[in-house]
Write a structure and sequence with these properties.
Length: 673
């Protein structure tokens, strides 16, 4: 037997007090007059024996009461192994409060059961122990230790959250706080349903004691909208914009008659009824017709029960009034380019001479065409690099009289391929990349009679540079038109001059016109149509303000002021866990003037309701963790105390102390001498 607080045993010296009281207790006798003293001696002897016995029993019970009272404060225990922890303990308790914990156990939601278990854990430890209460929120106040009462209050405050994190990330936060403390007694508890998709914990730090408390829900089936995306990166007015919706059946049985609907502009439109095989996905097609330019909000919804947090999917996108293009010419404009970009009302084209440029206006254009410049000046080169880095598109047609050293200097700075000497060999283009956005939907079907361009002269374009992709190619395998990724933008380089004397591209309308349109449109496809709560902490938008005192605000289900950081033409907004509810969030500088709308959805990480069984947890962690089973959870506090200290005896000591005090009182009260 060992003692948790052995210094209390010094109080055993108090056992001498009852002995002293007993030895120095002198009873005062009263003189009693008897008329007959014949039986006095017998009465005296009998009373003396009974009094001595009573006093000895009273002394014994007092000594035993004091003894067991002292032992109770010393907290004796019988250890089961050599891992008994003495002294103050640091206990980190993770309570799973993700949406999956809204499922019902036998009598209550799992979150309520988890909070009860967490309180049992806290109450199982001593007042001097310190606790960290952590959840999927990972808030700042969860990164410190608290006493018992504060820890219990934090547990009461826990609510369901759309944020979900893998256990590996939770452990890193626990480890960070525990490592700061100079204390060898560090314990970690995980109270969760242990869904398969979040259990990625690897036990590498053996200085901690790990304990798992698994909870079980009644149901394990779900259907969710996983994601949605447009087939084309840009949406247009009065066009049937194709939206693809991915619906996932996580159940082991086929589901039928899942109703999919869409809400847009305040009207709800039924899309269709879905039948999805077990453990599989189905991609449905929704056509969205935009009648007016501007910010569009779409809400997709399916009918599913009982797990509903992933049944709604929010998305938003912006349809611009016009696409702005700029053509920079060395001499006169190319009439074919002007005609191509002016034939569609959706495009607004501007022609400028290379000697008359406003570099600060580049950011307003979605496509800049360099039309046979003899050289690229230092100022223009710098402006184009910044424009590309910020997400712009540049289409370069070299001149037959180009300064190749100057051109290659610019191409080298942006990571493009190098131009070789001009080759006057006649060549025909016979390859086009219909998997790339520029040509992927230009032709209804691949045809052998597509009229592709031919050239009488071209520069050799090396296949190097950042994210090079061949869009059009010659029969000999060399490149005619290449695409390079530069920052957030794209650089398109043609190996031949645009002049019709060298290149008949401008006369191939079925290639040239769609190519210009798709290049101009491609820059608009970078904006995400949906974000995930907890995962996407930063968003960006074009900076429409100037000055350091400008404050962007966000309104929606939650209203707040995000952190703001300017980066060129864009401003980065930091959300920092301020988005706590799925829905649409508007960004504005002035009330009522919405600049952009972001759609946030709950994390789908827990859409798969499959939880790891007890045997699977044992196989995963072997002997590295303690798994507290259902039978042990019934008396969780007592189990933890015995696990940490062995067989606890202090309760029995206090009970015995009370029993002996009661016996002493009974003897004094009812034993008359």
């Amino acid at each position: 037997m060992q003692f948790l607080y052995p210094l209390f045993l010094a109080a055993l010296a108090t056992l001498v007090i009852p002995v002293i009281i007993h030895l120095f207790y002198f009873r005062r006798y009263k003189k009693v007059l008897f008329t007959n003293v014949r039986f006095l001696k017998e009465i005296k002897e009998e009373s003396s024996v009974r009094s001595r016995l009573k006093n000895l029993l009273t002394l014994l019970f007092r000594l035993l009461a004091v003894l067991f009272l002292v032992l109770g404060f010393a907290q004796p225990f019988i250890k089961k192994d050599d891992n008994v922890r003495k002294g103050q303990k640091l206990v980190s308790i993770f309570v799973d409060n993700s949406y999956s914990m809204a499922s019902l156990s036998q009598d209550a939601p799992l979150l309520e059961e988890a909070k009860r278990k967490a309180k049992d854990v806290v109450n199982a430890y001593d007042l001097e122990d310190q606790f960290q209460i952590i959840s999927h929120d990972l808030s700042a106040r969860q990164q410190r230790f608290y006493g018992r009462e504060q820890a219990l209050a934090l547990i009461d405050d826990l609510e369901l959250t759309p944020t979900v994190n893998p256990l590996s990330k939770i452990f890193l936060r626990q480890q960070q706080l525990l490592d700061e403390a100079n204390n060898p007694n560090k314990l970690i508890y995980y109270i969760s349903d242990f869904q398969k998709n979040i259990v990625d914990l690897e036990i590498t730090d053996t200085t901690f004691e790990y304990n798992l408390i698994p909870l079980r829900a009644v149901i394990e089936q779900n259907v969710s909208i996983d994601s949605a995306w447009f087939e084309a990166p840009v949406q247009m007015v009065d066009k049937a914009n194709m939206l693809l919706v991915k619906v996932h059946n996580w159940s082991d049985q086929k589901v039928e008659n899942i109703q999919l609907s869409m809400r847009m502009d305040g009207a709800v439109k039924p899309v269709g009824s879905l039948d999805i095989e077990a453990r599989s996905t189905y991609i449905d097609t929704v056509f969205i017709t935009v009648l007016q330019p501007g910010i569009q909000k779409v809400e997709l919804k399916i009918t599913d029960f009982p797990v509903q947090f992933d049944d709604t999917y929010y998305l938003s996108f912006n349809v611009k009034q016009q696409i702005q293009t700029l053509v920079i010419n060395q001499d006169r404009p190319n009439r074919y380019v002007v005609s191509a970009l002016s034939s569609e009302e959706y495009f607004s084209n501007t022609d400028r001479n290379v000697s008359n440029l406003d570099y600060t206006s580049f950011n307003q254009y979605q496509l800049i065409v360099l039309n046979e410049l003899s050289s690229i000046s230092i100022g223009l080169s710098s402006a184009l690099r910044n424009y590309l880095s910020d997400g712009g598109n540049v289409l370069l047609f070299p001149s037959a009289q180009s300064d190749l050293t100057n051109y290659n200097s610019f191409l080298g700075q942006v990571g493009g391929g190098m131009l070789g000497a001009l080759d006057t060999t006649n060549r025909v283009v016979n390859y086009f990349n219909n998997n790339e956005f520029v040509f992927n939907d230009v032709f209804e079907q691949t045809r052998n009679n597509i009229r592709l361009p031919s050239t009488t002269s071209n520069f050799h374009l090396s296949n190097q540079g950042q994210l090079v992709e061949k869009l059009l190619g010659y029969r000999d395998g060399s490149t005619y038109l290449a695409k390079y990724g530069v920052g957030k933008g794209r650089l398109y380089v043609c190996a031949a001059p645009l002049d019709i004397d060298y290149n008949n591209l401008v006369t191939q309308a079925e290639v040239f016109i769609p190519m210009l349109y798709k290049m101009a449109l491609s820059t608009a496809g970078e904006s995400k149509i949906a974000y995930t709560i907890g995962s996407d902490q930063y968003v960006e938008l074009e900076n429409d303000a100037s000055g350091s005192d400008v404050v962007y605000r966000v309104s929606g289900p939650d209203n707040f002021i995000p952190s703001q950081q300017s980066q060129g033409r864009y401003i980065i907004l930091g959300l920092h866990d301020q988005v706590q509810e799925a829905g649409f969030y508007d960004v504005y500088l002035r009330e009522g003037d919405v600049l952009k709308t972001y759609a946030f959805n709950s994390n789908r990480l827990e859409s798969d309701p499959i939880c790891l069984s007890l045997d699977q947890l044992k196989d995963m962690f072997a002997d590295e963790v303690t798994i507290i089973q259902q039978t042990q959870q019934a008396n969780l506090g007592e189990y933890i105390q015995q696990k940490d200290r062995g067989i606890i005896l202090w309760k029995y000591c206090l009970i015995l102390a009370l029993i002996f005090l009661a016996l002493e009182a009974l003897i004094i009260r009812f034993w008359s001498v």
